[in-house]
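Open question from group meeting: does this chain pack into something compact, or does most of it stay loose? Before anyone orders reagents, we agreed to write out a predicted structure and look at it together. Recording both the input and the output here so the notebook holds the full record.
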Amino acid sequence: MTLLHDIIQIALIGIGATAVMDIWLSLLKRLGVQTLNIAFIGRWVGHLFRGRFAHAAIAKAQPIPAEWALGWLAHYVIGIAFAGLLVAVFGMNWVANPTLLPAVLVGMGTVVAPLFLMQPAMGAGFAASRTPTPLKNCLRSLANHTVFGLGLFIAALLIDWIAR
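C-alpha cells returned:
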C-alpha cells in the first residue's frame, strides 16, 4: 500500500477512536458526571500559540476566539496522533489485523498526556493533585483513555471490514 493510504487509515482510526470516546463522555454527561469542557482545551491551545503554556486555572484565563472549535480540532488531532503512536509501536500489520490488547494498552498509556501535561498546564496539578478528588479524577481519566483504546480497536475493525 502507499504511504498516503496508510496515513488515511491511521487518521480514520484516530477519528473513530476519538468519536467512541466522545460517545462515552456524552453518556457520562447524561448520567450527571462532569467532563472536561472542550472549550478549555481550545483556550489552552490558543494560549500556546500566544506563548503561554501554564495557567493557574484555565477556566479563569482570557477566552480565545473560537476556543470551542479549536478545542474540538485539537481533540481530534490528538486522537489521530495517538493512533499514529499505536501504529508506530505495533506497525501497519496491526491495522491489517487489529487485536484488542495493543489498542487498549496504547489507549491506557495515553492517559499520561492529560495527567502529566495538560492538567498541570491548565492548573489542576500533576495527576489532578490540585483538584478536590485527585484519585477519582485520575481513575476517570484512565477509564476514558481505556475507552479510547477500545475505540482504536473498533475503528480499525470497522475500517478493515469496509475495505474488504
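Observations to bring back to the group:
Residues 3-163 form one domain.
DSSP finds seven helices and no strands in the chain.
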